[in-house]
Amino acid sequence: MLGGIVHLFRGIRVGFVLAREGALAFVDPTELPPHLRLALKLGRSLERPGLGAGAGPVQRALTRLGPSYVKFGQFLATRPDIVGMDAAFDLEKLQDRVPPFPQDQAMRVVEAALGKPVRELFVSFSEPVAAASIAQVHKAHILDADGAERVLAVKVMRPGVRERFQRDLQVMRFMARVVQALSPKAERLKPREVVEILARSVMMEMDFRLEAAAMSELAQNTKDDADFRVPRPDWELTARDVLTSEWIQGIRLNDRAAIVAAGHDPRALGRTVIQSFLRQAIRDGFFHADMHPGNLFVDADGILVAVDFGIMGRLGVNERRFLAEILLGFILRDYKRVAQIHFEAGYVPAHHSVDDFAQAIRAIGEPIHQRRADEISMAKVLTLLFDVTALFDMSTRTELVMLQKTMVVVEGVARSLDPQLDMWTGAEPVVRSWIARNLGPVGRIESAGRAALTIADVVADIPDLALRLRRLIVRFDDQAPGEARRLANVARREQRRAVWSTLALWAIAIGVLMLAMRS
User: Domain Protein kinase: where (predicted)?
Assistant: First the structure.
């Protein structure tokens, strides 16, 4: 009870700061029931004067509320389906920059995490070169066994940040429950689920061993990509509170003048940004979900290098197929196929019309093809898409929304390098390659093989299931002998049926395999 009161007052403070800084201006009153429209009107009356200049209202409010809310805002920047496109682009500019904590504290964190004094671990350990709400980065040098010197980036956890985040997270959970209770329409946006996704995301981000693992996985996936690479983590100098990796010497992608001065081709880099992201998403199903210019560099060899792997996205095989076919459908202007894909994936309820949904998709796709590449606003395209999904009761797919928002950020980075870039032309080779590989004859054979393995697993489990059933019957026989005999007869019939079902499944699997090989 006392905890609830504390959360209530903290939630009221959050609401007051949002209102005071003008963040409620993003809320559309026409979507609210009467009692919430009144509350919004009262909240808007609290706005302080002179809010037009400087950072956006949501940026100001969350910065004032503290590091946990800054992190929450960065997460919501990937969820325009919840906050709207205008607020999402306001949040996208949110700077996670705070003053660094003292050098001696950072050294104590490193020594506690790695179990040795800093002077024994590194030849040199600099003052912080960058600081954020969760951690700060130091530049360090070490000597390898052969005497060669290496330059490293050492990311150090900010002391006390976990405790602060857990406290603020309880308030966010409380506010999510309140929002869901006050507005039944909010159920589609799943506010409580969103907070839990944030909690898991940030708690993973606060274990640097997991970030090192993400870095390692992405490096393995892209090892054969000639135009993209990932820094190597140093596992011996990495722990929960410390992440050590290769130091990247390069030019940030938001410095176009320096890129041109260094002799790199910005237009080629723009295509590389788009295609690298799509290869990660469609080919590998594991993508960097925070590809803003501050996390992307071009090295001396002209290779694109990504850093900061705290926010990653995953797509399953079905989602990757969905994405590839959607992109190809827009490229080919096959809106009926795009609509059918949504229905086949179960994203749109079956009671809606495929033709009506195709008509709505056409309203999104045709403006893309009737304008020059530099005139297409992906922000407007996404706004239309979210309006359409709401109209057709399409439930929120977190992984797809994150991917769509990341795609907009990636396109913005690429366009800053090449204002004439056509994202769809850049995407087509990657999409066609994946579809040819996975939906062609080879992909069909592999799918048939996976189906056969699934059937084999089911068959292998039959003896174990029969043994469990026999034990259950013996145990039950002690209590009701007559009922046990009846169950035994049922079990024998089911066992015979299982044998014939297994043979039928094997026959089907062999038939599918032969059809796939014949295609």
Answer: 123-499
Give the whole-angstrom CA distance, residue 399 versus residue 82.
Answer: 14
CB–CB of 347/339 below 8 Å?
no
The pair of three-digit structure tokens given for residue 172, joined into one six-digit string: 């966010």
Tokens of 58: 């949501």
Task: For residue 312, give the 3-state DSSP assignment.
Answer: strand
* Confidence (pLDDT) at 129: 92
Strands (E), 11-131: 124-131
227 touches 272 (CB < 8 A): yes
Residue closest to 305 by CA, chosen among 234, 239, 218: 218
Which CA distances in Å does 252 have to 99, 128, 129, 246, 303?
22, 19, 15, 16, 12
What's the pLDDT at 415? 84
Report how far apart the first and last C-alpha atoms of the chain are (Å, whole number): 66
Provide the CA 207 distance to its chain's centre, in angstroms: 17
pLDDT, tens digit, for every residue of 223-253? 999 999 999 999 999 999 999 999 999 999 9
CA distances from 87 to 27, 56, 57 (A): 9, 9, 9
Which residue do the tokens 């928002």 mark? Answer: 405
Q: How far apart are CA 263 and CA 258, in angstroms?
A: 9
What is the edge-to-edge ordering of all strands in the sheet holding 242-246?
Answer: 124-131, 135-143, 149-157, 242-246
pLDDT of res. 411? 82
Block residue for tokens 């290496």: 150
- Distances, alpha carbon 58 to alpha carbons 89, 92, 266, 396, 416, in Å: 10, 10, 33, 23, 25
The yes-or-no answer on residue 290 being catalytic is: yes
Model pTM score:
0.72
Phi, psi of 251 (to 5 degrees): -110, 130
Q: Tell me what pLDDT residue 72 has.
A: 77
Q: Which residues of the chain have pLDDT under 50?
A: 53
Q: Are 8 and 174 in contact (CB under 8 A)?
A: yes
Q: Count of alpha carbons within 13 Å of 341, Cβ hemisphere only?
A: 19
Among 81, 234, 290, 418, the one annotated catalytic? 290
Structure token digits, residue 328: 């190809």
Query: Please, what's the b/e burial string for 476-488 (b: 16 or more CB within 10 A of its CB; e: otherwise)?
Result: eeeeeeeebeebb
Give one word for 129, left, alpha or beta, with left for phi > 0 and alpha for psi -120 to 50: alpha
The rounded distance, in Å, linking the Cα atoms of 274 and 422 is: 10
Q: At 235, is the secondary structure helix, strand, or coil?
A: helix
Using DSSP's 3-state secondary structure scheme, residue 143 falls into: strand
Interhelix angle 266-278/398-417, nearest 10 degrees: 170
Element (H, E) at 139: strand 135-143
| pLDDT of res. 85 | 65
Q: What is the DSSP string of 166-189?
A: HHHHHHHHHHHHHHHHH-GGGGGG
